[in-house]
TrEMBL record:
Keywords: ATP-binding, Helicase, Hydrolase, Nucleotide-binding. The lineage of its organism: Eukaryota, Viridiplantae, Streptophyta, Embryophyta, Tracheophyta. Its EC number is 3.6.4.13. It catalyses: ATP + H2O = ADP + phosphate + H(+). This is RNA helicase. It is an enzyme of class 3 (hydrolase). GO terms for molecular function: ATP binding; hydrolase activity; RNA binding; RNA helicase activity. SMART domains: DEXDc, HELICc. Residues 318-475 form the Helicase C-terminal domain. It comes from the Eukaryota. Transmembrane segments: none annotated. Residues 107-289 form the Helicase ATP-binding domain. It comes from Cannabis sativa. It holds the Pfam family DEAD.
Length: 475
């Protein structure tokens, strides 16, 4: 096997000629078996190293060479002449001046036109990263859908839409030559009739969509993707592991659009077996063969400001243990995660665990925070109301299933309580990632797990896989 070369991301950008590496052989696809073949050459960038095996990639980093990848670079420096000035001004007005690690490492690659897998901690700035790319390529003079962002939940879609509309706010008088950028939220629970009318009258520039609503429009040919330049799949691992969505997602990637006509970005904080996934992106033709894997903080999957704790008690004492923790911590803003109700419990006519917990806290907890609920079975209006109330300011305790664990951005959250231990290490990562979401902040945040003694070994496995230490609390 040929020798490999490892260099830092900064060193990579100044290499005078391409460096060829050996190819890796993977046995099967990410959830879908196929004949064993070696992947095409590709570039992998991580915080500690960048490995290159495609000659054209080094030629596509001239913009990164100009700005460098040091810590003094601003977002404006990184975006250079790629992003319109009025968008950059909006970015700065809302407080984004210094790039996060993922923005510093990924933007030069994205602006070069390469497909990319953005793999970075929760709250690391992936959304802004791909939105800056989108604003760099769209042409507001054209009346066509030029960018599509696919999300797994309505809540994440609303959040992404809000950020995109903030950046695309109507230009000031000095920017009259700039047409406004229209953004449609095509989300489950929305009015498809109203969206049909809009799409027929004048297609939006950017569409943020859940896969179900999107495919309805595509199948009826109300929405077409012939002019799409950028396709983003957010929380990609979650969507590929959902049996309800995976067939529609694969159809979107291979039938409704072509990898040759678009730039494809996959984003998530967790991509299990990520090397295999990147390989599959190439083999299944979800991306071009020179796709780049930007893996930020691979040695530290979660923010360093998180402090992990656990309490051991019997099942019938969990409510009292939670109450004691809340009284001791007095969190201004926190999320309490509860497991989904089992089908057996539903058939028996039992109340959902979220309802039981809400009733208990309403009766017993005397803190100042508002107690709110977010779960899958709520109708979309109630779910939207809960999130709206959370974002209006003031303290809150949100009781939620894993619906809130993916992508929901509540930067004021300082405490996470796992009333039920998450079923997988990936779910733990995403639940914990709902706190510690203020970039460059050293504020200490807490993730507390309420366990039975039998569950301790599960938490230990999560500690080993995610490389964190959990402190036991005695209450």
């Amino acid at each position: 096997m040929a020798a490999t070369l490892s260099v830092s991301a900064t060193q990579l950008l100044s290499l005078p000629r391409p460096v060829f590496l050996s190819r890796k052989l993977h046995v099967h696809a990410y959830g879908f078996p196929f004949p064993s073949r070696s992947p095409s050459s590709r570039l992998v960038i991580s915080e500690n190293r960048a490995i290159c095996s495609a000659p054209e990639l080094l030629n596509s980093t001239s913009m990164a060479e100009e700005v460098g990848l040091d810590e003094t670079v601003t977002l404006r420096d990184l975006c250079g002449n790629h992003v319109p000035d009025h968008v950059l001004r909006r970015v700065e007005e809302v407080g984004y001046v210094i790039p996060t690690d993922v923005q510093r490492q990924a933007l030069p690659t994205l602006f070069s036109g390469l497909d990319c897998v953005l793999h970075a901690q929760t709250g690391s700035g992936k959304t802004l990263t791909y939105l800056l790319l989108i604003f760099s390529v769209i042409n507001t003079q054209r009346s066509a859908v030029q960018a599509l962002i696919v999300v797994p939940t309505r809540e994440l879609g609303m959040q992404v839409t809000k950020v995109a509309r903030t950046l695309a706010a109507k230009p000031t008088e000095s920017d009259l030559e700039q047409n406004s950028c229209t953004i449609m939220a095509l989300l489950d629970g929305g009015s498809l009739k109203r969206h049909k009318t809009w799409l027929k009258a004048e297609p939006p520039t950017i569409v943020v969509a859940t896969i179900g609503s999107l495919c309805q429009m595509l199948e009826k040919r109300i929405l077409t993707l012939e002019s799409m330049q950028v396709l983003v799949i957010d929380e990609v691992d979650f969507m590929f592991n959902s049996s309800k969505e995976v067939s529609s997602l694969r159809k979107l990637l291979t039938s409704y659009s072509s990898i040759n006509n678009r730039q494809t970005i996959f984003a998530s904080a967790s991509i299990p077996q990520h090397r295999r996934f990147v390989h599959d992106c190439i083999q299944q033709k979800w991306t071009k063969s020179n796709v780049v894997h930007v893996h930020v903080n691979p040695v530290e999957p979660m923010p360093s400001c998180l402090h992990h704790r656990f309490v051991i008690c019997s099942k019938n004492m969990r409510l009292h243990a939670l109450l004691s923790l809340l009284q001791t911590d007095a969190p201004e803003s926190g999320i309490i995660f509860v497991g989904e109700q089992s089908e057996k419990s539903k058939k028996a006519g039992n109340a959902p665990p979220t309802t039981l917990l809400m009733d208990f806290l309403t009766a017993s907890y005397k803190g100042d925070s508002d107690i709110l609920l977010l779960e899958e079975d709520m109708n979309f209006n109630l779910r939207a109301t809960s999130l709206s109330e959370l974002r209006q300011g003031g303290g809150y305790l949100l009781v939620s299933t894993d619906l809130a664990a993916r992508g929901v951005d509540l930067p004021e959250t300082t405490h996470i309580y796992n009333f039920d231990l998450p079923r997988t290490v990936t779910n733990y990562l995403h639940r914990a990632g709902r706190t510690g979401r203020k970039p460059f902040s050293d504020e200490k945040c807490f993730v507390t797990n309420i366990l039975t003694s039998e569950e301790r070994f599960v938490l230990q496995r999560y500690e080993n896989e995610l490389m964190f230490n959990c402190e036991e609390l005695l209450i």
